Amino acid sequence: MSWLRALRETARSGLTIERRRLEPLIAIRGAAGLALVIGVGLAFFGPVVAASSAFGAFQAAIATFQRSWRPRPVLALVSGASLAVSTFLGYLTGAHLPLFMALLVLWTFLAGLTWAAGPTGGIIAASNVGIMLVTITLPTSVAQAAVHAVMIAFGGVVQAALIVLLPVRRWGAQRDALADALAAEADYARRLRHDPVAEFDPVPLMTARSAAAVTPRQARHRPAELHGSRGLAERIGPVLASLADPAVGVPAEGPERDRVRELLAAAASVLDAAARAIRHGAPVRLPAPAVAALRTPDTGAILTGAARRAARRLSALLADVIETAEGDGTKEARAEADDAADTIAPHRRRPTLLRLVPVVLWAMRAELRPGSPILRHAVRATVVVAVGYLIGAALPFGHGYWAPMAAVMVMRPEFSQTYARAAGRFGGTIVGVFVATAIVQATHPGAGPAAALAIVCALLMYLLMRTGYVVGQACVSAYVVFLLGMAGEAWSQTVGERVVLTLVGGLLAMISYAVYPAWETPRLRNRLGDWLAAGGRYAASAVDQYADPAERGPEDVRAALLVSREARVAWQEAVARAQHEPVRHRGLSRTAAEDAQHALAQLGRAAMLMEAHLPEGDAIPVPAAAQLADALRRATEQGAKDVRERRAPRWEAVREALERWDEEDERRGRTSDPVVRNGADLLLESLEEFSRALDAGAGVRPGTSGAGRS
């Protein structure tokens, strides 16, 4: 899209106010911790120290709202401690501009690289840089700077203590993630009733997998209903797909199809009931019609072959889901269930905070390479913050930290987020600064009333921060104004001065991305090639299980599935980011991208069908399956290279492997399992559809790979 349209779309996104579920108890707890810290600061140290300590408590509470599976008290402690260190070091160098600029450049660059460890770390690090620019102006001596640093860290400790003493929905994030995964399976079952070849979105299962990673301490205290359910959810999806698909299940119409629709509806109701129970920690309440539909003996009489096997597996899995959601059974029984679930979805360990440090450092070091979007973001942020600080210091307004603070708080590695947040920050700042400054200049509140107003703004921020960036920034701007007003007149500014400095910071952030971008659009073909290669490995792993069931196990299929899911999500996220970028990819049209995405989704669905019916260890080997698996691996690897080089892949090698399979069956006078044989045909059809999509796209060249054209 054009620059004008891109700016308009991102600005609209940044100014959008959404209706989201509010969490008033968590907001009140965060505001209470802030009030406690401000009260202690005012009582023992005065308003200036209270102001800096309030920044620590405020930022620590915001850190606990980030989307992270790490314990909330840990996030609060890390945020408070890191801001305290930043403030103290910043004050020590603040009197010497060259030395402070060196520290600011280093700190901002490291904060930019921290995005390599995830958005939570990146947001906390960026906020520390922005708030540091304010807090270093408050102390007047090294001793006072040390006191301010201690009080800032104290703010993080208070917020962490309140989270432990006053828990709100303990394990709530993990419950929601697991419940969303079960609800996604329920939605998939309903869609399969009307569309037997519907696609399944793996994102909820991937989120649940991330949420399931726990520290050793968490593992000892995890609720019983969070044990094993994720593994069951992973196993239900392929069974639902195989039950509904006409290629391996039942005909498209007739009594068998009607029975399948009943089973799918019943499964959806049971999964929804289990999801509600896990989300709220309540007993499972099963709808009577669903229970009756699952228990009727007609299934064995109506369904045959693979469909009957899938129906029996579905009933058994749903029974396990209900038992797990109830949290029933002894500790030994739950441990046995965990071991069984780990066969499909292994238990994941989250490193402790100390063991996480080398992991984060390694991730940051890995981004120090040409072309890395994270490295480009770090360079952009560093230059913008340094230039913004110098411009703010040169302008005759005083307190020029508003410019670099605005810049570092809005900058993200992606174009759309940076521009949307810049628009939202500027709009929110105008409202928040205007209202707060007008109140301060009209009423001249003392330290106590100003502190109370700041706490109210913080409460509104915590309550409304998920409804839109512009709303949150209005509350944050007003909070900063009231907090500095509490510290005294020395930190006062007019509305115009603060707005102008914020505008300078936002413009610098936007210009930096235009001058030194990291566009996602030119990398779309690489992402698509990665997904093709990962999907091919997943399909090959599933096919390979039939070649020698005694020697192979589901672990290889599971590992390949996870890689394929990650590649699919990376592609989808890249497409979403590219849609808002003011650049055009000449080698991949939007229609071709959508068709190719659909084809690869069907490739994954075909592999999932075979995964639902993996043979037992004593099953008869199918040697031709090994040849097909090898052809799939080689062809999709070469096909991924073709995609990256703007060629449409060819699949003659896969077709030849299927023809040899049919010849071997004919020579031996037997027929292979229709599940795996029909699934193999679906794999080839998906690959051919993928090539047709790219052939229809602009700018492709005929393929020359050994995989051949279909």
Automatic annotation (TrEMBL):
Q: Which residues form the Integral membrane bound transporter domain?
A: 388-511
List localization entries: Membrane
Span-the-membrane segments of this chain are 44-62, 74-93, 99-116, 146-168, 378-402, 422-440, 447-464, 470-487, 499-519
How is this protein situated with respect to the membrane? Multi-pass membrane protein
Keyword annotations of the record: Membrane, Transmembrane, Transmembrane helix
Q: Which domain of life is it from?
A: Bacteria
User: What InterPro entries does the entry give?
Assistant: Memb_transporter_dom
- Name the chain's protein: FUSC family protein
Organism for this UniProt entry: Streptomyces yanii
